[in-house]
Amino acid sequence: MDFDYTASEQSFREEVRSFISENLPPKKERGKNFLASWLEKVRARGWVGFAWPKEFGGSEGGLIEQTILREEMALAKAPPLGTSMMGLAWVGPGIMQYGTEEQKRKFIPDILDSKVTWCTGYSEPNHGSDLAAIQCKAELSGDHYLVNGQKIWTTGAPWSQWIILLTRTQFDVKSKHDGITCFLVPMDAPGVEVRPIQNMAGDKHFAEIFFTDVQVPVENRLGAEGEGWNVTVSALANERSSIGEVTQMFEKLANLKELVKTTSKQGQPASMDPKVRRTIARFEMKVAAMKFNGLRYLTKQIKGEPLTSETSVNKLHRASLEIEIDDFAVQLMGQAGLQLRGGESAVDGGTWSKSALNWPNVVIGGGTPNIQRNIIAERLLGQPKD
Amino acid sequence: MNFGFTQEQSLLRDQVERFIKEACPMPKVREIAASESRFDSTLWQQVADLGWLGLTIPEAHGGLGLKWIDLTVVLEAAAEGLCPLPIASQALASAAILTCGNDQQKNDWLPAMAAGKTICTIGLYDEANWIDPNAITAEAHANEAGYELKGIKPFVNDAAAADYLLLAVNAPNGLALAAVAKDSVKITHQPTMDTTKPMASVDLNGVSISAEFLLPMSEDQLAFLTDCGAVATTAEMVGAGAAILEMTSNYAKERIQFGKPIGQYQGVKHRLADMYVDLESYRSLSYYAAWSVDDDIEGLAKAVSLAKGYASDAFAQIGIDGVGLHGAIGFTAEYDAQLYLKRSKWARPMYGDSDYHMDRIATLGGL
User: Fold this and answer.
1) B71: distance to nearest CA of chain A, Å?
2) Are A249 and A376 in a shared domain?
3) With an 8 Å Cβ cutoff, are B281 and A289 in contact?
């Protein structure tokens, strides 16, 4: 065991830090063109698609360097490295693995250059967690497919230009995992209608999407017909050891500690209340567990063992922390905790209250906690499937 | 950056697991726990011959000069089978002599301890649930022979198996460890839930020791030894927790109710998943704490509290769920699951319960 970094890893960290200090001004000093110029600069450094193969425009950054980059960016609260989160996380890798040469040429550079934002058309009104049961229909008709059906809870749909769309091309199948086909579809194609859905925090991040006789050219099919489930599974298998998330959780914990020091409870600082102290210690144990679980999984990856379902462990921690920390902060602030931005007594600009209503983004988005528990029980403990 | 075990450490783990399976399987554990001595000198000698008792003792003193992370590999693997031998007590006593002893005392004690010829244990606090120098009430007073001891040490692990007991006392110049020979004190076995972890009270009244048997101990050294105790305990909690999870998981695959294995019901499989999440989490924290003993003394207190604070309640719940998911069979004396539940009860308060460690996390974390 050894928690040190090599000289070259350390110098990479320095490089990232000095880049940040030169190129990331405080929020108030950022001009109108800041984000565009930031994206251009990080792209020029090769930090967008940092882990991707060089032949596709990536940097083939090592596992530790990836970790360092994510950690430093999270510490600095830097804007994302590239605006197409889903494009970078699974659409790009999916195209690299299953795409045709033309698809690679057409889509990969735009993801890296933040020119195109992708959303992910998986969930349907009747099929969310049970993803493989999808019903959105695609029928081959000459040189194109005709898509009819509906998607829902599609995060980013209101502002995305493209969607990676999971459809069913065959209904008479033995296993629901067969007969699924994946397509790359422009959101402005005729017959695509996006209706944003307002969430309980008041935001319109996700939407329902209606597909009515949408013509999708055959060359926009990703992978073979009926291979859609494999495309999806291997795309989602691009798991990481969640180091960036850990840094964010430590930040949130630090903010919470500041909050309890400045919040009064029954006439004295909340930080003196034994229950408050132990609650925060319990959060800290979980965040630390995420950190050291993550380092164990990272070590596994470095040794060449692929990560599989272990990442569900940290996803469950993250889910409960996302809910519990904000919930705790809000109730600690009493009636002030109810106030949103603009309220005279709102604390920290109402960020805790806002965030206390936004946890489903993280908690439901990547597979609900109960789905994560199924994954752990079935794949890691070998329990029979539901 | 490498948070994994070396090949040597993996081989050591295999060796311990094999030994436990072959030489100390559960019927043997029950036999030892039910015997009058609650100890097995043949097994002890085998363990000594394998070198496990000298892992953290420097080579100059007859040990292997390895680290606590190596020791915890042994403690974890031995605890998978609830091995009742006092390996942890011996390791803590070695740490006490290495920490508080002078060169002469190290030379006198450690080689015989590494070889298993002298068995030692340690008894720090006299209050049932208080980790603090003030929780040491036993005393040592200077007399012509050296020191006269006073008081009762109510909670000493493995006292009956040991040749010498290292017991914390208030001496004329501050805290100290008094090394007392087993035969010179009155040891009274205390019936507890966990028969694989014998506990005794030790009556020191009227006992005298010569001066070289008193090892001065600072409050920092006491804190360090307490942290070592928590590291040893959590390592055993990792092994025992993994064993009862495996036992329960296997049972859930085989036990058929309403026409299907109970592991197919989410009420069962989700509990198993939660047990796994908690076990993996305190496993990671426990390895980091063990590494910190030798490699990050500044961060040790925090690392230990994160590990033991998490493990204390998590293992207790794993013990309860392990028994509970078995249904009535898990409740029987004959079935082994209950022995692990009892171990979780034993481990929970040892070297600080979760409240103690969470309070320390809060303080160390700036609250």
Assistant:
1) 14
2) yes
3) yes
Q: Identify whether residues A269 and A320 lie together within a single domain.
A: yes
Residue in A closest to B265 by C-alpha: A386
CA A293 to CA A266: how far, in whole Å? 38
Print pLDDT tens along chain A (386 aa).
999 999 999 999 999 999 999 999 998 999 999 999 999 999 999 999 999 999 999 999 999 999 999 999 989 999 999 988 899 988 999 999 999 999 999 999 999 999 999 999 999 999 888 889 999 999 999 999 999 999 999 999 999 999 999 999 999 999 999 999 999 999 999 999 999 999 999 999 999 999 999 999 999 999 999 999 999 887 776 655 556 789 889 999 999 999 999 999 999 999 999 999 999 999 999 999 999 999 999 999 899 988 878 889 999 999 999 999 999 999 999 999 999 999 999 999 999 999 999 999 888 877 899 999 999 999 999 999 98
Picking from A214, A236, A258, the residue at the C-terminal end of a domain is A236
Instruction: For chain A, report the end-to-end CA distance as a whole number of angstroms.
Output: 39
Q: Do B272 and A381 count as a contact with CB atoms less than 8 A apart?
A: yes
Contact criterion met (CB below 8 Å) for B160 and B206: no
Contact state of A383 with B277 under an 8 Å Cβ cutoff: no
Domain end among A236, A266, A285: A236
Quick check: is A72 catalytic? no
Among the partner-chain residues A288, A303, A384, the one whose CB lies closest to the CB of B263 is: A384
Q: Within this chain, do residues A231 and A250 fall inside the same structural domain, yes or no?
A: no
CB A320 within 8 A of CB A278: no
Q: Which of A40, A239, A324, A378 is catalytic?
A: A239
Q: Provide the domain count of chain A.
A: 3
Residue A47 and residue A133 in one domain:
no
Contact A306, B14 (CB under 8 A): no
Q: Does residue A2 sit within a domain?
A: no
Note whether B113 and B53 are within 8 A (CB). yes
* Residue A87 domain-assigned (yes or no): no
Using an 8 Å CB-CB cutoff, list chain A residues near B287. Answer: 1, 292, 296
A383/B282 touch (CB, cutoff 8 Å), yes or no: no
Between the two ends of chain B, the Cα-to-Cα distance in Å is 30
DSSP-assigned letter for residue A114: T
